[in-house]
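Dear H.,

Thanks for agreeing to be a second pair of eyes. The structure we're designing against is below in token form, covering all 267 positions.
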């Protein structure tokens, strides 16, 4: 017969197993980084060569509209093509990391590529044109080098801006099929530690909604601040997708064989 002491121990053991089995699965595979006590942190200087200094607008209305028909624009369709899905991390209202699905997207017949993510209460399609894509690619390279050389500083203020700043373009809305809002936010590249794990960071700052009358009291007047976090592998995957070589391949129309193009018989 079990004694009271034995029954108490068994109960405590069962509770421990239950707690362990309920561990959160919100955090994706993360990158390991040596403990701060074992590393001499080096202050990171912003690489100004990765900043977009041009004032030219790479997101003109003509480019955004493209060759879509009146009907496509009316029903807000065919604004982008989807490539493949990946993961990234955001933080919830309590600051805890949460893994989200993202989709790599391309705006047809342009130099614009980016990501589609459900962030907060809305869908956001965030795009970068060619010059800005190349700044992001350089930022990822700098991050990987700083990671490898143990130059990432947990205490650095505004570390999410150290790799440069560019202009971006985004479309957003509560439903993916109805992303009728748009803005041209400042985009910052950097890194941040979440739960002692480092992530490459893309920070899209709050920006004016260009698709509404700002005098309309019921209008969504701004996009929200968005911070997207990527492991090394995820950042490299995004950089490869946004490379000139890949975007150029998506921009080139596929060759379609027709009867007229084929060899014909002579008589």
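And this is the sequence the design step returned. I haven't edited it by hand at all.
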């Amino acid at each position: 017969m079990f004694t009271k002491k034995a029954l108490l121990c068994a109960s405590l053991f069962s509770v421990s197993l239950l707690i362990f089995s309920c561990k959160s699965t919100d955090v994706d595979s993360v990158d390991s980084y040596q403990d701060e006590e074992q590393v001499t942190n080096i202050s990171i200087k912003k690489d100004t060569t990765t900043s977009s200094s041009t004032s030219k607008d790479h997101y003109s209305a003509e480019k955004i509209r493209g060759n879509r028909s009146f009907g496509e624009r009316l029903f807000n369709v065919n604004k982008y093509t989807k490539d493949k899905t990946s993961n990234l991390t955001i933080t919830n209202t309590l600051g805890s990391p949460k893994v989200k699905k993202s989709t790599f997207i391309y705006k047809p017949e342009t130099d614009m590529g980016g990501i589609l993510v459900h962030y907060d209460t809305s869908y956001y399609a965030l795009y970068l044109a060619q010059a800005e894509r190349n700044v992001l690619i350089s930022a990822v390279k700098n991050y990987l080098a700083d990671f490898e050389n143990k130059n990432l500083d947990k205490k650095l203020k505004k570390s999410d801006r150290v790799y440069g700043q560019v202009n971006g373009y985004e479309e957003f809305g509560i439903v993916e099929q109805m992303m009728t809002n748009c803005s041209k936010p400042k985009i910052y590249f950097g890194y941040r530690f979440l739960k002692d794990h480092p992530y490459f960071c893309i920070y899209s700052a709050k920006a004016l909604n260009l698709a509404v009358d700002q005098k309309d009291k019921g209008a969504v007047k701004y996009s929200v601040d968005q911070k997207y976090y990527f492991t090394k592998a995820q950042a490299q995957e995004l950089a490869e997708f946004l490379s000139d070589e890949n975007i150029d391949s998506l921009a080139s129309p596929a060759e379609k064989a027709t009867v007229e193009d084929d060899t014909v018989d002579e008589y």
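Two observations from my side: The mean pLDDT is 82. The helical segments are 4-21, 61-65, 70-74, 130-148, 232-241, 244-251.

Warmly,
E.
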